[in-house]
Design brief:
The complex is a heterodimer of chains A (214) and B (291). Chain A is mostly helical and 214 residues long. In chain A, 76% of the residues lie in helices and 0% in strands. Classes of the chains: A mainly alpha (214), B alpha/beta (291).
């Protein structure tokens, strides 16, 4: 059914392991904690092992070690990267004053990418897309006005601790309810999403493992 | 005469545990039965009747000239991929049917695991031209930006890799990118980091339902060319793609188990609501009882 495991011995074995692991996780429903905890440890161990292997095989060796060994003169910029890797590996032994700038550069770099992308790629284009078009009548003027009103009211709901009049307080209250409604809608999406995953797992047990479902 | 306690097969604690687990176990049983009966539910349809998103994606893929380069950015989560698996496979089949050259890349470790498994499946199915494997690119969003300049691994050899190198070697070499979204690197990251740097590149996305409210505005603003982000749209798309082929749409989630699950969720919601109302109804009586 899910097609990941083949019909050979390895595939059959993988299907059995996946099916038994699924049942072991579901055993938590009956209060059997030990099997569930065992599965948690198995997942954590496998994930860690996979990440380490991926980092060594796909990143550190081909993109750092090999270029540095084969063409050291052309890859001078990789030397600071090697130093960074060494510092991150030995972070628990190195003094905090030495590690703080390194961590700062890493966090700052990630934040700059995320923030820059959010402003240029989301905030500005979305504002531009939400603005009513000039000239000819907008095809969805009512929708745009409703969107503007809802956005304004929800933004008002975030005015915590600021002195406000009765009108603003009421508007903020409406905004809070709109926010709750929005979160409720998202929760509904989430229920459908998670339910489909549960149904898929049941279908895996019946189809791939027990082969009673075709 | 002796006082003897009758031996019990199941202890009180075990019984209490089973009683607590009964609703969940019953739900699992009901879902299993519904899955078995799902093939004979003629009146129920999970596929969305609104085909606008499906038609949009089919049109974008249909307009690609034969031999185009399409990048599949596989960054789905292990936890939610099952929801979009059938849709993603249908999209890969759709692209292959239009004669495009495919390449797969991942920017998350989880996505890489799924991409490798999917590529193995395609090879096992006997595909003559499986997607070229661009591997895993580290660095999350920074890696995404770096890939705009260069995405082909240095030692990679093959027709598709050469075609990408001839067109510059970066993401811009592709005619379209199909983003298989997860929570870490989603279509949003592509819009923000790649869409702003390569505005002419066509970005289409397949995403699990929980990402729909986040991604829908990008489709409305035109930053995404097409988007399938609900289960019903995915099923409708898989059916539309399979309609023109000899094979069926492949295994998709059945409508009956979904209906039973949703009814169970509504029952839980209603039960919680009634319990709350009941508690509120009892409160004044308690207050009155106080001296």
């Amino acid at each position: 059914m899910n097609g990941f495991a083949g019909a050979d011995l390895a595939g059959t074995l993988a299907t059995w392991v996946a099916a038994l692991a699924t049942i072991a996780v579901w055993s938590y429903l009956t209060g059997a904690r030990r099997l569930f905890v065992l599965m948690q440890h198995l997942l954590a161990g496998l994930a860690t092992g996979y990440l380490v292997l991926l980092a060594i095989r796909d990143v550190l060796v081909p993109r750092l070690a090999v270029p540095l060994i084969e063409h050291p003169a052309d890859r001078v910029l990789l030397v600071p990267a090697l130093v960074l890797v060494g510092m991150l590996v030995g972070a628990s032994w190195l003094p905090r004053r030495l590690m703080a700038p390194v961590a700062g550069i890493l966090v700052g770099g990630i934040a700059a990418y995320a923030l820059g992308g959010a402003v240029v790629g989301t905030v500005l284009p979305q504002i531009a897309a939400a603005l009513p078009t000039t000239g000819a009548a907008s095809p969805d003027l009512v929708g745009e006005v409703i969107s503007l009103a809802i956005t304004s009211l929800v933004l008002l709901a975030f005015l915590h601790g600021t002195p406000r009049g009765r009108l603003t307080t009421r508007a903020a209250g409406v905004g809070r309810w709109l926010l709750v409604g929005g979160i409720g809608g998202w929760l509904g999406f989430l229920v459908v999403s998670r339910l489909s995953l549960l149904v898929d797992r049941v279908a895996f047990l019946l189809g791939d493992w027990l082969t009673v479902l075709r | 005469m002796t006082n003897s306690v009758a031996p019990t097969l199941v202890s009180e604690a075990s019984l209490a545990r089973l009683r607590r687990a009964a609703p969940a176990l019953l739900l699992l049983l009901a879902l299993a039965l519904a899955s078995l009966l799902s093939g004979s539910t003629g009146g129920l349809r999970l596929a969305s009747p609104d085909r606008s998103h499906v038609d949009q994606l089919r049109r974008v893929i249909g307009e690609l000239p034969s031999g185009s380069l399409v990048l599949i950015a596989f960054d789905a989560d292990l936890g939610t991929y099952a929801e979009i698996r059938a849709t993603t496979r249908a999209a890969i089949d759709d692209l292959a049917a239009h004669g495009v050259r495919l390449a797969i890349v991942s920017f998350t470790p989880e996505g890489r695991a799924i991409a490798a498994a999917e590529r193995d499946r395609i090879i096992r199915a006997g595909s003559a031209d499986p997607p070229a494997d661009l591997g895993f690119v580290a660095g999350s969003e920074a890696g995404l930006v770096r890939s705009i300049e260069s995405i082909v691994p240095s030692g990679a050899a093959g027709e598709t890799f050469d075609a990408v190198r001839q067109r510059g070697g970066g993401i811009g070499a592709f005619d379209m990118v199909l983003v298989v979204s997860g929570s870490d690197i989603s279509a949003r990251s592509w819009v923000e980091q790649v869409g702003t740097r390569l505005p002419g590149l066509s970005l289409v996305a397949i995403a699990p339902t929980f990402l729909d409210p986040e991604l829908e505005p990008y489709l409305r603003s035109g930053q995404l060319t097409a988007l399938l982000s609900t289960l019903r749209e995915g099923v409708a798309y898989a059916q539309a793609v399979s309609a023109g082929s000899a094979s069926g749409p492949g295994p998709t989630v059945g409508p009956l188990p979904m209906l039973i699950g949703m009814l169970a969720a509504l029952a839980v919601l209603a039960e919680a609501g009634f319990r709350r109302l009941g508690r509120r109804g009892r409160r004044p009586a308690r207050r009155r009882a106080r001296p």
